[in-house]
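User: Structure please.
Assistant: Input sequence and predicted structure:
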Amino acid sequence: MDERNSALREKVAKLIGEAAEAKVALDRAEGKVKGVPHYSVIENTAHELGREVSRLVQQIHMTELVAQQPLSGKCPQCGGRHTLELKKRTVTSGDGPVELIELIGDCTCCRRAFFPSAGNPRI
């Protein structure tokens, strides 16, 4: 497992380096950074890339979690079992908007919408 983890760490480091180099090149190509910029400009573009990566990581984690959940759930009010549907929803994270997919159930008995993942300790 340590070899796999090491390989993944190396891959992350390599990809972060490539993303940073591409971001610097893009900023210069788009004219966001010209000549010798004030350090705050450099820092702001670095944070911009970091926020983009953060939102993507959040989206991937949540998509994987939803993919592991059963596609039916019990209504917390009446206990009836219902098919769950995948719905997209945008949430505002500390790094900006993230489009997530979540499971939602609609109980036909008590006419209640429910989100079974909210009470799941694995999430």
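The chain has one domain: 2-119.
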